[in-house]
Every structure is written in C-alpha cells, then in structure tokens.
Amino acid sequence: MIKVPFNVWLLMCVGALAMSAASIVVFTGGIIGSALAPSETLATLPLALMIVGTALAVIPVTMLMQRFGRKRVFILGTCTSIVGSLVTCVAIMKSHFELFCFGTFLLGAGLAYVQQYRFAAMESVSPDQMASAAAKVLLGGLAAAIIGPELALLSKDMFAQPFAGAYLSLAGLYLLATTLLFLYRPNHIHSETQTSEGRPLTTIIKQPVFWVALLAATVGYAVMSFIMTATPMSMHIHDGHSLADTKWVIQSHIMAMFIPSFFSGFLIRRYGVAKMMMTGVLAFVLCAVIALIDRSLLHYWIALILLGIGWNFLFVSGTSLLPQSYKDNERFKVQALNEFSVFSIQALASLSSGWVLYQFGWEILIYISLPMLLVVVMAIYYWQRGQVKGA
User: Fold this and answer.
1) How confident is the model over 263-296, as pLDDT tens digits?
2) 334, 198, 212, 350: which is closest to 273 by C-alpha?
3) What angle do CA 114, 115, 118 make, to 5 degrees?
4) N or C: where does the chain have the smaller number of CB atoms within 10 Å of the terminal CB?
5) Binning pLDDT at 50, 70 and 90, where does residue 1 land?
6) Which pLDDT score is estimated for 196?
7) How far apart are CA 272 and CA 53, in angstroms?
8) HEC assignment per residue over the chain
9) Per-residue pLDDT reduced to its tens digit, 211-234
10) Are residues 120 and 138 in contact, defined by beta-carbon separation less than 8 angstroms?
11) pTM of the model as a whole
12) Distance in angstroms (rounded) separating the CA atoms of residues 325 and 306
C-alpha cells in the first residue's frame, strides 16, 4: 500500500474548510444578489466577482510562493479570506450590494491560494503518484460541498438579514484553517525558491501537451461554471423550486465534482489521460441532453451531477498532465499561466451566465456551452495524432 505524505492529508483537510467559501457563495450568491442588486441581470455579479478575484490573484500568489515559499503564503491566503468573510457579512447586514460584491471578490482572491494546494501536494510525491495526490486534495471539496450549504442554512437566521450569519461562520472556518496550516511541512525534495528561470514561456507553450492540459482544465471549469452559476436562479426564481430543493441540487453537484477523486487518479493511471478527458466531455454532453429534456427537480439533479463528474475528469486530467510540460525550475510560472487562464475564462463564463439566462433562457444557455467541448476534443485528437507519429 502506498503511503500518503502528511502534507497531502493536511492540504485535503484545510481544503475542506477553505473551499466551503465557494459552495456558500454558489448557493447564496445569486439569491442574495437578486435581493440586493439594482437589476436582476446583476444578480450573479457577486459570484462572478469571486471568480474574477481568483483570476486576478493567481499570478501574484504564485510569484509570492516562488519568493517566500508555500507555507507563509498559504497562511496569508486564509487571512485574506477571513477579511473577505467579515466584509461580506457586514455588507448583507447593511444591504449594501457593492460591498457584498467586494467581499466575494476578496473570498475569490483567497481561493487563488487554495488552488495551489494541489500543486503543493503533487510536489510531495513521486511522478507516478501526482494524479492521485491532486485527486486526494480535491477530495476536500467533497466535505466543502456538505459543510458550506449546511452552514449557510443553519446560520441563515443568526441575524435579521438572511445569510449574514453564514459568512460570519465562514470566518470561523478560515480561522481554523489558518491554525492547521502552521503544521504544513515545507517540501525539501523540491526547493521552495529557485533563481533559475528555465525556458521562456514562449518555448513552453509551443508544446501540444501544454495546450491539452490547459484546455482540459479551462473548458472544464468554464462549462461547469456557466451552467452551475445559472442553476440556483433558474430553479428557485424562474421555475419555483424550493430553496431546500435548490440547495440539494447544488450540494449534489459539488459532491459530484469531488467524489470521483476517490478513483480518478487510479483511472488516469489505468486508462490514460486522453481517455479520461474524453469521458469528461461525454459527461458534459449527457448533462446538456438531460437539462434540455425537462426542468423538473429530477432533471436538474441528474444534469448537475453529470456536470460535476465531467468537471472532475477534465480538471484532474489536465492538472496531472500539466507537469509534463515543464521542468521543476519552471513550475511556478507555468502554474501561474495555467491558473490565470483557467480562472479568467471561468470568470467570463460566470459573468455572462446570469445575463444569458435572463435574456435568452435556460435552453439557449445550455446550447451555448456545447461548442466549447469541441475545442477540447480537437486538441486531444491532434495531440494523440502527434504522439502516434512520434512513436
């Protein structure tokens, strides 16, 4: 039996606490936004700004890690999220939409630090165990899928303004996460800081393997975010499903994003990255089909579960493939480019999701997501064809 390093377990546990911010904002952001925003088309802006915050923070966060090491910067990240949680709580209590958006932006910036957990875990294991290490860290999201929405409902009426208590409770989770991060052990196999720059990015990005890894993660996140962001409003506001039913669908979706991490690392080693990526694309296509058939609770539930599975297969596959495109002394700048690309496109998808839903409806939103999948299929095809020719 393969021994799992302490850092992997620690980052999985801290991730469970830290990623609860995402599940809380996904569950409540559109609903709170609908109540506070001056226009219903801006209802998803708080959720979109969380993703914008992540996109804008990923490059500075990665550069800070290159200079100061992962441990100190991870702790800085949870402190940032504590501030974001408190700002968001105050914004809800004051019914201040712009301040609420700023709070979710800060929470998104904090999540940029969390996105580095999987890379830190991969650096703690041998190359053949990298996919499993990344998948195990993502398992923290499974716990977050339960902790976040449950915490939001349990603390919903802590104050007169609904959900203000959820974000105060979230600050408590981040305080616990900060304490745990003091136990993180810096990795001495791969040095924390390096002065050698390695190859220029212009050389690295010419490799087909880089583009396949990047597109798998980017499109996986974009399609998932585009559909997921609109779901609470489509279910609760447009179709009249209860808040409890909406919570269950979102909770099931987030669980489906991370449950496959129990075995996705094994499946990648067994069947290869390309087959796992294609399976992820297939799950997205089935999600679209189910979502277009009907808008009942059951159809929403099945579609969002398939959406979560498709995301996991594409994202874990892309993450495990990315290290094949860089050397150890190039990892920070390649990871920064990868993360910025992923979350910039995700931010665009999330920002446009609410507008598309209100302007064109649920069905058009689903149809728009399909062409993005074709880009991934084509990239995989050309990469595989190049490998066959080179063999």
Assistant:
1) 888 899 899 999 999 999 999 999 999 999 999 9
2) 212
3) 100
4) N
5) very low
6) 62
7) 33
8) CCCCCHHHHHHHHHHHHHCHHHHHHHHHHHHHHHHHCCCHHHCCHHHHHHHHHHHHHHHHHHHHHHHHCHHHHHHHHHHHHHHHHHHHHHHHHCCCHHHHHHHHHHHHHHHHHHCCHHHHHHCCCCHHHHHHHHHHHHCHHHHHHHHHHHHHHHCCCCCCCCCHHHHHHHHHHHHHHHHHHCCCCCCCCCCCCCCCCCCCHHHHCCCHHHHHHHHHHHHHHHHHHHHHHHHHHHHHHHCCCCHHHHHHHHHHHHHHHHHHHHCHHHHHHHHCHHHHHHHHHHHHHHHHHHHHHCCCHHHHHHHHHHHHHHHHHHHHHHHHHHHHHCCHHHHHHHHHHHHHHHHHHHHHHHHHHHHHHHHHCHHHHHHHHHHHHHHHHHHHHHHHHHHHHHC
9) 999 999 999 999 999 999 899 889
10) no
11) 0.79
12) 29
pLDDT digits (tens, 9 = 90+) for 62-89: 999 989 999 999 999 999 999 999 999 9
> What are the structural domains, with CATH classification, of the chain?
6-185+200-390 (1.20.1250.20)
